[in-house]
C-alpha cells in the first residue's frame, strides 16, 4: 500500500466496525502499511482511535528488511504489545537478520509468544539467548536453518521459557542430546518438536521427550539416523495424543515400533516412513486397521511392501486419505492403485507412484476416471507407461495442477502437447 493510497482509504477504514478494522490490521497489512496508515490519518480523533487499535495488535509481519529497524522503533513508540513476529523477507534478506535486531526485539516486546526465524542464517547463540532472557513467555520458536546455534541456545530457551509448546530445529546440526534433554525436563507442555537433520540426536533425548512431554502431538525426526525402535516405542508408550510423526530416513526402525505406534496412538493422521526399508506389510496393515483417520502416509522406498498393505489402507482410510507416496515400492501393482482410486475417489489429492515398474496404464486410467479431487500425481521413472495413461489423465476431472513425467520415455511429445492443450493450467515436470 503506497502513501497516496493510504491517504485515500484511511477515512473509509476508520468507519469500519472495530472488529473488522482489527482483522484488517492484523491479517492483511504489513508493518510498513501500518506506518503509512499512521501518517495518512491527520484528525485528532482519528489518530487517537488508530493508536488504540494499534495497541490491541498482537501479531505483526515485517516484509521490508531495509526499514526493519525503523519499523521496530515505530512499533515501540506506538505502544504495540506484540506477541507474534514473522519476518517475511527474501532468502538474501533473511541472511541479514542479525543478533542486534533480535536483541532489540527482546528488549521491546517482553510479552512475545511466537517468533519465526527460519533461514536467518546469521543469527547465533547471542541472538537466541537474548530472546530467551527477554521474552520468557515464548511458546513457539522456529529456528530451522539457523545453523550457527548450539546447545547453549536451546538450554537457555528451556530454562527461561518454560511455556514452550513448539520448537523447530530443522538443520541445526550442532544440537545434541544434552540440549533436548534439558528442553524436555523444563518444558513439559511441548507438543511439537522438529529435530530433522540433526545428526547428533540419539534415542536418549527422544526417550526423554516422550517421558516428560506426554502431550506431544507432532515429532519430526527426518534423517535422524541414530534413532531406532527403542525411541519410537517410548513415544508410543507415553504420547497417546501423537498425530504426526516423520521417520523419513530412520533406517534402523522395524515393524516392532510401528505396530506399537498403531496400537497406542490411534489418532495418527500423518506418518512418514520413507526410506525405512525394514518396514513390511505387517506394520502398515496395523496402521491402516488402527488409525482410520490417516490423511497422509509416505512409504517411498519401502521396498518390502506389497499390494496387501496398500489395499488395506484404501479400505480402512476410505474417504479420509489425501496424500500417499509409494515411489520406489517396486512390488506394488495396478491392483493396489485401482483400489486406492475406487475407495479414496473423493479424498485423494496427491499420489506418488514413481519407480513402480508393476503399475501399468490400467492403474493410471483408474485414477483418472475415479479421483475427483486429485491435484498432483508423480509418475516418474515408469517406462512401461504409454500415451494411453496421459490421455486418460487429460480427459479426467480437469483439476490436476502438477504432473511429473521424468523418465517416461514411452509417453510421446505429441501426447504431452495434447494434454497441455486440454489442461493448460497443469504444470508438467519432464526433466
What keyword list fits this structure?
Leucine-rich repeat, LRR (right-handed beta-alpha superhelix); globular
Please write out the topology.
Blueprint: H1 3-13, H2 18-27, H3 31-40, H4 44-56, E1 59-62, H5 68-77, E2 84-87, H6 91-94, H7 99-108, E3 114-116, H8 125-134, E4 140-142, H9 151-160, E5 166-168, H10 177-186, E6 192-194, H11 203-212, E7 218-220, H12 229-238, E8 244-246, H13 255-264, E9 270-272, H14 281-290, E10 296-298, H15 307-316, E11 323-325, H16 334-343, E12 350-352, H17 361-370, E13 376-378, H18 387-394, E14 402-404, H19 413-422, E15 427-429
Parallel strand pairs: 1-2, 2-3, 3-4, 4-5, 5-6, 6-7, 7-8, 8-9, 9-10, 10-11, 11-12, 12-13, 13-14, 14-15
Helix pairs in contact: 1-3, 7-8, 8-9, 9-10, 10-11, 11-12, 12-13, 13-14, 14-15, 15-16, 16-17, 17-18, 18-19
Radius of gyration: 25 Å
Q: Biggest sheet: strands side by side, in what order?
A: 1-2-3-4-5-6-7-8-9-10-11-12-13-14-15
| CATH superfamily label of the domain at 267-431 | Ribonuclease Inhibitor
Number of strands: 15
Q: In CATH terms, what is the fold-level topology of the domain at 267-431?
A: Leucine-rich repeat, LRR (right-handed beta-alpha superhelix)
Largest sheet entry: 15 strands, parallel
Structure annotation, total helices: 19
What structural class do helix, strand and pairing data support?
A: alpha/beta
Beta-strand fraction estimate: 5-15%
Amino acid at each position: 500500500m503506497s502513501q497516496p493510497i493510504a491517504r485515500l482509504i484511511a477515512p473509509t477504514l476508520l468507519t469500519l466496525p472495530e472488529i473488522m478494522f482489527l482483522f484488517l490490521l492484523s491479517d492483511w497489512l504489513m508493518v510498513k502499511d501500518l506506518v503509512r496508515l499512521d501518517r495518512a490519518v491527520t484528525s485528532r480523533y482519528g489518530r487517537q482511535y488508530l493508536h488504540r487499535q494499534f495497541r490491541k495488535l498482537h501479531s505483526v509481519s515485517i516484509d521490508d528488511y531495509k526499514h526493519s529497524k525503523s519499523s521496530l522503533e515505530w512499533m515501540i513508540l506506538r505502544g504495540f504489545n506484540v506477541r507474534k513476529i514473522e519476518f517475511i523477507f527474501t532468502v538474501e534478506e533473511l541472511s541479514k537478520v542479525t543478533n542486534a535486531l533480535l536483541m532489540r526485539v527482546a528488549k521491546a516486546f517482553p510479552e512475545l509468544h511466537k517468533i519465526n526465524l527460519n533461514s536467518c542464517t546469521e543469527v547465533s547463540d547471542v541472538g537466541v539467548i537474548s530472546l530467551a532472557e527477554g521474552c520468557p513467555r515464548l511458546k513457539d520458536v522456529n529456528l530451522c536453518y539457523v545453523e550457527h546455534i548450539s546447545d547453549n541456545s536451546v538450554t537457555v530457551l528451556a530454562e527461561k521459557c518454560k511455556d514452550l509448546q513448539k520448537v523447530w530445529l530443522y538443520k541445526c546440526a550442532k544440537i545434541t542430546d544434552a540440549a533436548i534433554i534439558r528442553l524436555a525436563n523444563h518444558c513439559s507442555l511441548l507438543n511439537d518438536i522438529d529435530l530433522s537433520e540433526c545428526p547428533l540426536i540419539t534415542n536418549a533425548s527422544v526417550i526423554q521427550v516422550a517421558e516428560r512431554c506426554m502431550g506431544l502431538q507432532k515429532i519430526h525426526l527426518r534423517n535422524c539416523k541414530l534413532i531406532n525402535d527403542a525411541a519410537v516405542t517410548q513415544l508410543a508408550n507415553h504420547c497417546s495424543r501423537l498425530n504426526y510423526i516423520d521417520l523419513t530416513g530412520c533406517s534402523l526402525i522395524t515393524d516392532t515400533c510401528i505396530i506399537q505406534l498403531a496400537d497406542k496412538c490411534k489418532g495418527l493422521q500423518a506418518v512418514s516412513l520413507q526410506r525405512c526399508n525394514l518396514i513390511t506389510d505387517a506394520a502398515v496393515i496395523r496402521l491402516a486397521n488402527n488409525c482410520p483417520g490417516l490423511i497422509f502416509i509416505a512409504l517411498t522406498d519401502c521396498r518390502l511392501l506389497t499390494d496387501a498393505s496398500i489395499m488395506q489402507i484404501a479400505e480402512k482410510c476410505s474417504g479420509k486419505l489425501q496424500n500417499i507416496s509409494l515411489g520406489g515400492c517396486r512390488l506394488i501393482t495396478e491392483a493396489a492403485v485401482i483400489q486406492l482410486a475406487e475407495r479414496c475417489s473423493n479424498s485423494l489429492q496427491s499420489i506418488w507412484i514413481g519407480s513402480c515398474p508393476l503399475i501399468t496404464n490400467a492403474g493410471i486410467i483408474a485414477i483418472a476416471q475415479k479421483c475427483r479431487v486429485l491435484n498432483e500425481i508423480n509418475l516418474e521413472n515408469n517406462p512401461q507407461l504409454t500415451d494411453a495413461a496421459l490421455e486418460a489423465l487429460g480427459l479426467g476431472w480437469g483439476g490436476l495442477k502438477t504432473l511429473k513425467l521424468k523418465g517416461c520415455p514411452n509417453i510421446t511429445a505429441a501426447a504431452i502437447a495434447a494434454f497441455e492443450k486440454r489442461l493448460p493450467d497443469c504444470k508438467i515436470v519432464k526433466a
